[in-house]
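Exercise 7. Predict the structure of Protein phosphatase from Streptomyces nodosus.
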Amino acid sequence: MHIGDMEAAQYFAFVRQPWQLRRALVAIPLVLIVAISVADICAPPDVHLSPLLVVAPAITTAFAGYRLTALIGALAVGAHRLIDELQIGLAEDRYAQLVGLALLSIIATLMSFARDRNASELAQVRSVAETAQQALLRPLPDRLGPLRIASSYLAAAKQAAMGGDLYAAARIDGRTRVIIGDVRGKGLAAVGEAAMLLGAFREATHRYATLPALAEALDRSICRHLTEFPETDEEAEEHFITALLVELSDHSPVARMINCGHPPPLLVRRGQVRCLSCEDPAPPLGMWGLAPDDHPTHSFCFQFSDSLLLYTDGVVEARDRDRNFYPLEQRIAFWTRSSPKALVQHIERDLSAHCHGALGDDAAILALQRTPPPRLGLHLGDLVAEAH
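Solution. The predicted structure, encoded as C-alpha coordinates:
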Protein backbone atom coordinates (compact mmCIF):
# COMPACT_ATOMS: atom_id res chain seq x y z
CA MET A 1 0.00 0.00 0.00
CA HIS A 2 1.25 3.43 -0.92
CA ILE A 3 -0.61 6.33 0.54
CA GLY A 4 0.91 8.82 -1.90
CA ASP A 5 -0.42 6.85 -4.87
CA MET A 6 -4.12 7.41 -4.27
CA GLU A 7 -4.64 9.73 -7.23
CA ALA A 8 -2.75 7.43 -9.59
CA ALA A 9 -4.67 4.41 -8.34
CA GLN A 10 -7.97 6.15 -8.96
CA TYR A 11 -6.85 7.09 -12.46
CA PHE A 12 -5.73 3.59 -13.38
CA ALA A 13 -8.93 2.11 -11.98
CA PHE A 14 -10.84 4.46 -14.26
CA VAL A 15 -8.70 3.67 -17.30
CA ARG A 16 -9.19 -0.06 -16.76
CA GLN A 17 -12.97 0.13 -16.69
CA PRO A 18 -14.88 -2.85 -18.07
CA TRP A 19 -16.01 -2.47 -21.65
CA GLN A 20 -19.66 -2.57 -20.55
CA LEU A 21 -19.18 0.62 -18.54
CA ARG A 22 -17.31 2.35 -21.37
CA ARG A 23 -20.04 1.37 -23.78
CA ALA A 24 -22.62 2.90 -21.45
CA LEU A 25 -20.58 6.10 -21.21
CA VAL A 26 -20.32 6.31 -25.01
CA ALA A 27 -24.08 6.74 -25.07
CA ILE A 28 -23.69 10.17 -23.43
CA PRO A 29 -21.93 11.95 -26.35
CA LEU A 30 -24.10 10.09 -28.87
CA VAL A 31 -27.27 11.22 -27.12
CA LEU A 32 -25.89 14.77 -26.99
CA ILE A 33 -25.18 14.75 -30.74
CA VAL A 34 -28.70 13.53 -31.54
CA ALA A 35 -30.39 15.89 -29.06
CA ILE A 36 -28.47 18.98 -30.19
CA SER A 37 -29.04 18.14 -33.86
CA VAL A 38 -32.79 17.65 -33.41
CA ALA A 39 -33.09 20.79 -31.29
CA ASP A 40 -31.17 22.86 -33.86
CA ILE A 41 -33.27 21.60 -36.77
CA CYS A 42 -36.50 22.34 -34.89
CA ALA A 43 -35.33 25.73 -33.62
CA PRO A 44 -36.13 29.04 -35.37
CA PRO A 45 -33.75 30.01 -38.20
CA ASP A 46 -32.05 32.66 -36.12
CA VAL A 47 -31.18 30.19 -33.33
CA HIS A 48 -28.04 28.11 -33.93
CA LEU A 49 -27.33 25.29 -31.49
CA SER A 50 -24.87 23.34 -33.63
CA PRO A 51 -21.77 24.95 -32.00
CA LEU A 52 -22.74 23.00 -28.87
CA LEU A 53 -21.77 19.79 -30.69
CA VAL A 54 -18.19 20.40 -29.55
CA VAL A 55 -19.28 19.16 -26.11
CA ALA A 56 -19.51 15.58 -27.44
CA PRO A 57 -15.79 15.01 -28.29
CA ALA A 58 -14.77 17.03 -25.23
CA ILE A 59 -16.73 14.70 -22.94
CA THR A 60 -15.45 11.61 -24.75
CA THR A 61 -11.86 12.62 -24.04
CA ALA A 62 -12.51 12.18 -20.32
CA PHE A 63 -13.16 8.43 -20.47
CA ALA A 64 -12.27 7.03 -23.91
CA GLY A 65 -9.19 6.46 -26.02
CA TYR A 66 -8.11 8.54 -28.97
CA ARG A 67 -9.83 6.28 -31.54
CA LEU A 68 -13.25 6.63 -29.95
CA THR A 69 -12.67 10.35 -29.42
CA ALA A 70 -11.87 10.73 -33.12
CA LEU A 71 -15.01 8.79 -34.04
CA ILE A 72 -17.24 10.95 -31.84
CA GLY A 73 -15.58 14.07 -33.27
CA ALA A 74 -16.27 12.86 -36.82
CA LEU A 75 -19.91 12.17 -35.94
CA ALA A 76 -20.23 15.66 -34.46
CA VAL A 77 -18.78 17.23 -37.63
CA GLY A 78 -21.11 15.08 -39.75
CA ALA A 79 -24.11 16.13 -37.67
CA HIS A 80 -23.13 19.78 -38.06
CA ARG A 81 -22.89 19.32 -41.83
CA LEU A 82 -26.28 17.59 -41.92
CA ILE A 83 -27.89 20.45 -40.00
CA ASP A 84 -26.47 22.95 -42.49
CA GLU A 85 -27.84 21.00 -45.45
CA LEU A 86 -31.31 20.68 -43.92
CA GLN A 87 -31.48 24.37 -43.06
CA ILE A 88 -29.95 27.09 -45.21
CA GLY A 89 -26.91 25.39 -46.72
CA LEU A 90 -23.31 26.11 -45.86
CA ALA A 91 -23.22 29.85 -45.21
CA GLU A 92 -19.93 31.57 -44.48
CA ASP A 93 -20.52 31.83 -40.74
CA ARG A 94 -21.68 28.23 -40.58
CA TYR A 95 -18.59 27.16 -42.48
CA ALA A 96 -16.43 28.83 -39.85
CA GLN A 97 -18.34 26.96 -37.13
CA LEU A 98 -17.81 23.67 -38.97
CA VAL A 99 -14.07 24.27 -39.32
CA GLY A 100 -13.84 25.25 -35.66
CA LEU A 101 -15.67 22.07 -34.61
CA ALA A 102 -13.33 19.97 -36.75
CA LEU A 103 -10.25 21.63 -35.27
CA LEU A 104 -11.47 21.21 -31.71
CA SER A 105 -12.26 17.55 -32.39
CA ILE A 106 -8.72 17.05 -33.71
CA ILE A 107 -7.27 18.75 -30.62
CA ALA A 108 -9.39 16.53 -28.34
CA THR A 109 -8.17 13.45 -30.22
CA LEU A 110 -4.53 14.52 -29.90
CA MET A 111 -4.95 15.19 -26.18
CA SER A 112 -6.51 11.76 -25.71
CA PHE A 113 -3.65 10.17 -27.67
CA ALA A 114 -1.02 11.93 -25.54
CA ARG A 115 -2.80 10.91 -22.34
CA ASP A 116 -3.02 7.27 -23.42
CA ARG A 117 0.67 7.21 -24.34
CA ASN A 118 1.70 8.77 -21.03
CA ALA A 119 -0.52 6.32 -19.15
CA SER A 120 1.09 3.41 -20.97
CA GLU A 121 4.59 4.67 -20.20
CA LEU A 122 3.67 5.27 -16.55
CA ALA A 123 2.24 1.75 -16.29
CA GLN A 124 5.50 0.33 -17.64
CA VAL A 125 7.56 2.39 -15.19
CA ARG A 126 5.37 1.28 -12.28
CA SER A 127 5.68 -2.34 -13.39
CA VAL A 128 9.48 -2.07 -13.43
CA ALA A 129 9.44 -0.32 -10.03
CA GLU A 130 7.24 -3.01 -8.51
CA THR A 131 9.51 -5.72 -9.90
CA ALA A 132 12.55 -3.95 -8.44
CA GLN A 133 10.80 -3.58 -5.09
CA GLN A 134 10.00 -7.29 -4.95
CA ALA A 135 13.63 -8.09 -5.77
CA LEU A 136 15.00 -5.75 -3.09
CA LEU A 137 12.28 -5.72 -0.44
CA ARG A 138 11.13 -9.31 -0.81
CA PRO A 139 7.68 -10.14 0.56
CA LEU A 140 7.99 -12.04 3.82
CA PRO A 141 6.27 -15.42 4.19
CA ASP A 142 3.24 -15.71 6.46
CA ARG A 143 5.17 -18.11 8.69
CA LEU A 144 8.82 -18.52 9.62
CA GLY A 145 9.37 -21.37 12.05
CA PRO A 146 7.04 -20.80 15.02
CA LEU A 147 6.40 -17.19 14.00
CA ARG A 148 3.45 -15.71 12.17
CA ILE A 149 4.54 -12.61 10.24
CA ALA A 150 2.86 -9.68 8.52
CA SER A 151 4.50 -6.62 7.00
CA SER A 152 3.66 -3.44 5.16
CA TYR A 153 5.53 -0.67 3.39
CA LEU A 154 3.86 2.72 3.07
CA ALA A 155 5.64 5.04 0.65
CA ALA A 156 5.25 8.77 1.18
CA ALA A 157 6.30 9.77 -2.34
CA LYS A 158 3.81 9.41 -5.16
CA GLN A 159 4.64 6.64 -7.64
CA ALA A 160 7.34 5.34 -5.27
CA ALA A 161 7.38 1.63 -4.54
CA MET A 162 10.34 1.69 -2.18
CA GLY A 163 12.32 4.32 -0.34
CA GLY A 164 14.88 4.24 2.44
CA ASP A 165 13.00 1.98 4.87
CA LEU A 166 13.73 -1.74 4.88
CA TYR A 167 12.99 -5.02 6.59
CA ALA A 168 13.98 -8.66 6.14
CA ALA A 169 13.93 -11.97 7.99
CA ALA A 170 16.05 -15.10 7.78
CA ARG A 171 16.13 -18.56 9.34
CA ILE A 172 19.36 -19.95 10.81
CA ASP A 173 19.85 -23.05 13.02
CA GLY A 174 16.50 -23.04 14.82
CA ARG A 175 16.39 -19.26 15.09
CA THR A 176 14.76 -16.42 13.22
CA ARG A 177 16.65 -13.19 12.68
CA VAL A 178 14.81 -10.03 11.75
CA ILE A 179 16.04 -6.60 10.74
CA ILE A 180 14.14 -3.37 10.24
CA GLY A 181 15.89 -0.13 9.35
CA ASP A 182 15.63 3.40 8.07
CA VAL A 183 18.23 5.05 5.87
CA ARG A 184 18.93 8.69 6.61
CA GLY A 185 18.23 10.57 3.42
CA LYS A 186 15.88 10.29 0.48
CA GLY A 187 15.87 9.51 -3.20
CA LEU A 188 17.88 6.97 -5.15
CA ALA A 189 20.84 7.20 -2.78
CA ALA A 190 18.64 6.02 0.11
CA VAL A 191 17.24 3.19 -2.01
CA GLY A 192 20.77 2.11 -2.93
CA GLU A 193 21.90 2.05 0.70
CA ALA A 194 18.78 0.15 1.73
CA ALA A 195 19.40 -2.43 -1.01
CA MET A 196 23.03 -2.75 0.07
CA LEU A 197 22.08 -3.36 3.72
CA LEU A 198 19.44 -5.94 2.79
CA GLY A 199 21.96 -7.84 0.70
CA ALA A 200 24.56 -7.66 3.46
CA PHE A 201 22.05 -8.93 6.04
CA ARG A 202 20.96 -11.89 3.93
CA GLU A 203 24.58 -12.89 3.40
CA ALA A 204 26.04 -12.16 6.84
CA THR A 205 23.22 -13.63 8.91
CA HIS A 206 24.35 -17.14 7.89
CA ARG A 207 28.02 -16.43 8.56
CA TYR A 208 27.96 -14.93 12.06
CA ALA A 209 26.75 -16.95 15.02
CA THR A 210 26.02 -14.06 17.39
CA LEU A 211 23.94 -10.93 17.04
CA PRO A 212 26.78 -8.51 17.96
CA ALA A 213 29.03 -10.08 15.32
CA LEU A 214 26.27 -9.71 12.74
CA ALA A 215 25.72 -6.06 13.66
CA GLU A 216 29.45 -5.33 13.41
CA ALA A 217 29.56 -6.96 9.97
CA LEU A 218 26.64 -4.83 8.79
CA ASP A 219 28.32 -1.69 10.09
CA ARG A 220 31.50 -2.57 8.19
CA SER A 221 29.50 -3.17 5.01
CA ILE A 222 27.83 0.23 5.27
CA CYS A 223 31.11 2.03 5.93
CA ARG A 224 32.71 0.26 2.98
CA HIS A 225 29.76 1.16 0.76
CA LEU A 226 29.90 4.83 1.76
CA THR A 227 33.64 4.86 1.06
CA GLU A 228 33.35 3.22 -2.35
CA PHE A 229 30.30 5.25 -3.38
CA PRO A 230 30.69 8.63 -1.66
CA GLU A 231 27.81 11.06 -1.77
CA THR A 232 28.31 14.55 -3.14
CA ASP A 233 25.59 16.32 -1.20
CA GLU A 234 26.25 18.60 1.76
CA GLU A 235 25.10 15.98 4.27
CA ALA A 236 27.23 13.12 2.91
CA GLU A 237 29.22 12.84 6.15
CA GLU A 238 26.02 12.27 8.11
CA HIS A 239 24.77 9.25 6.19
CA PHE A 240 23.81 6.35 8.46
CA ILE A 241 21.10 3.75 8.92
CA THR A 242 19.10 3.24 12.08
CA ALA A 243 18.33 -0.43 12.53
CA LEU A 244 16.87 -2.95 14.93
CA LEU A 245 18.19 -6.53 14.92
CA VAL A 246 16.11 -9.18 16.67
CA GLU A 247 16.88 -12.87 17.17
CA LEU A 248 14.09 -15.24 18.22
CA SER A 249 14.76 -18.85 19.18
CA ASP A 250 12.36 -21.65 18.27
CA HIS A 251 12.83 -23.46 21.59
CA SER A 252 13.49 -20.69 24.10
CA PRO A 253 11.35 -17.73 25.18
CA VAL A 254 14.47 -15.59 25.54
CA ALA A 255 14.74 -13.18 22.62
CA ARG A 256 17.69 -10.91 21.92
CA MET A 257 17.99 -7.60 20.16
CA ILE A 258 20.46 -4.87 19.32
CA ASN A 259 18.97 -1.43 18.84
CA CYS A 260 21.08 0.78 16.59
CA GLY A 261 19.40 4.13 17.15
CA HIS A 262 16.02 2.81 15.98
CA PRO A 263 12.54 3.34 17.49
CA PRO A 264 12.01 0.66 20.17
CA PRO A 265 9.73 -2.31 19.41
CA LEU A 266 6.41 -2.85 21.13
CA LEU A 267 5.58 -6.10 22.90
CA VAL A 268 1.94 -7.17 23.16
CA ARG A 269 1.15 -9.72 25.89
CA ARG A 270 -2.23 -10.64 27.38
CA GLY A 271 -3.88 -7.42 26.25
CA GLN A 272 -1.06 -5.19 27.49
CA VAL A 273 1.42 -3.18 25.40
CA ARG A 274 4.99 -2.62 26.58
CA CYS A 275 7.70 -0.55 24.95
CA LEU A 276 11.04 -2.41 24.85
CA SER A 277 13.28 0.62 25.10
CA CYS A 278 17.03 0.35 25.75
CA GLU A 279 18.91 2.57 28.16
CA ASP A 280 22.12 2.32 26.15
CA PRO A 281 21.30 1.69 22.48
CA ALA A 282 24.10 1.21 19.98
CA PRO A 283 24.88 3.96 17.45
CA PRO A 284 23.26 3.79 14.01
CA LEU A 285 24.96 1.52 11.50
CA GLY A 286 27.72 3.35 9.71
CA MET A 287 28.73 5.25 12.87
CA TRP A 288 30.06 2.49 15.14
CA GLY A 289 33.61 3.72 14.63
CA LEU A 290 32.70 6.90 16.54
CA ALA A 291 31.53 5.05 19.66
CA PRO A 292 32.94 2.52 22.16
CA ASP A 293 33.38 -1.03 20.95
CA ASP A 294 31.05 -2.54 23.55
CA HIS A 295 27.49 -2.68 22.21
CA PRO A 296 25.49 -4.94 24.53
CA THR A 297 22.71 -7.24 23.46
CA HIS A 298 19.40 -6.75 25.24
CA SER A 299 17.21 -9.72 26.12
CA PHE A 300 13.47 -9.94 26.68
CA CYS A 301 10.91 -12.69 27.14
CA PHE A 302 8.90 -13.60 24.04
CA GLN A 303 6.32 -16.21 25.04
CA PHE A 304 3.71 -18.14 23.12
CA SER A 305 0.90 -15.87 21.82
CA ASP A 306 3.04 -12.76 22.37
CA SER A 307 3.22 -10.28 19.51
CA LEU A 308 6.13 -8.03 18.62
CA LEU A 309 5.69 -4.90 16.52
CA LEU A 310 8.66 -3.36 14.71
CA TYR A 311 8.29 -0.08 12.84
CA THR A 312 10.19 2.88 11.44
CA ASP A 313 9.96 6.49 12.55
CA GLY A 314 7.67 7.31 9.62
CA VAL A 315 4.87 5.70 11.64
CA VAL A 316 5.26 7.53 14.95
CA GLU A 317 6.24 10.83 13.30
CA ALA A 318 3.16 11.00 11.07
CA ARG A 319 1.19 14.13 11.93
CA ASP A 320 -2.44 15.07 11.67
CA ARG A 321 -3.74 18.50 10.65
CA ASP A 322 -3.11 19.79 14.17
CA ARG A 323 0.54 18.64 13.95
CA ASN A 324 0.01 15.89 16.51
CA PHE A 325 2.16 12.75 16.19
CA TYR A 326 0.56 9.38 15.64
CA PRO A 327 0.13 7.69 19.07
CA LEU A 328 1.09 4.18 18.00
CA GLU A 329 1.42 2.63 21.45
CA GLN A 330 -1.97 3.95 22.57
CA ARG A 331 -3.71 2.85 19.37
CA ILE A 332 -2.32 -0.69 19.52
CA ALA A 333 -4.02 -1.13 22.89
CA PHE A 334 -7.31 -1.44 20.99
CA TRP A 335 -6.02 -4.31 18.81
CA THR A 336 -4.10 -6.49 21.26
CA ARG A 337 -6.11 -9.59 20.31
CA SER A 338 -5.47 -9.21 16.58
CA SER A 339 -3.38 -11.51 14.44
CA PRO A 340 -0.23 -10.02 12.86
CA LYS A 341 -2.00 -9.51 9.55
CA ALA A 342 -5.04 -7.88 11.15
CA LEU A 343 -2.82 -5.72 13.37
CA VAL A 344 -0.87 -4.41 10.38
CA GLN A 345 -4.10 -3.70 8.51
CA HIS A 346 -5.53 -1.83 11.51
CA ILE A 347 -2.41 0.33 11.71
CA GLU A 348 -2.43 1.03 7.96
CA ARG A 349 -6.02 2.27 7.99
CA ASP A 350 -5.68 4.21 11.23
CA LEU A 351 -2.41 5.82 10.17
CA SER A 352 -3.87 6.87 6.83
CA ALA A 353 -6.86 8.42 8.59
CA HIS A 354 -4.60 10.19 11.10
CA CYS A 355 -2.48 11.92 8.45
CA HIS A 356 -5.31 12.17 5.89
CA GLY A 357 -3.44 10.07 3.37
CA ALA A 358 -0.37 12.32 3.35
CA LEU A 359 2.62 10.69 5.02
CA GLY A 360 5.60 12.93 5.58
CA ASP A 361 8.05 10.02 5.43
CA ASP A 362 8.11 6.39 4.35
CA ALA A 363 6.83 3.95 6.94
CA ALA A 364 7.52 0.25 7.40
CA ILE A 365 5.61 -2.05 9.76
CA LEU A 366 6.51 -5.59 10.77
CA ALA A 367 4.41 -7.68 13.17
CA LEU A 368 5.44 -11.08 14.57
CA GLN A 369 3.55 -13.49 16.78
CA ARG A 370 4.95 -16.56 18.51
CA THR A 371 2.79 -19.66 18.14
CA PRO A 372 2.98 -22.94 20.08
CA PRO A 373 5.01 -25.66 18.37
CA PRO A 374 3.07 -28.45 16.63
CA ARG A 375 2.37 -31.48 18.78
CA LEU A 376 4.45 -34.31 17.38
CA GLY A 377 4.01 -38.06 17.85
CA LEU A 378 0.20 -38.07 18.02
CA HIS A 379 -1.62 -40.67 15.96
CA LEU A 380 -5.25 -40.84 14.96
CA GLY A 381 -6.06 -43.04 17.95
CA ASP A 382 -4.51 -40.48 20.31
CA LEU A 383 -6.63 -37.70 18.80
CA VAL A 384 -9.81 -39.80 19.17
CA ALA A 385 -8.91 -40.57 22.77
CA GLU A 386 -8.35 -36.86 23.47
CA ALA A 387 -11.72 -36.03 21.94
CA HIS A 388 -13.40 -38.33 24.47
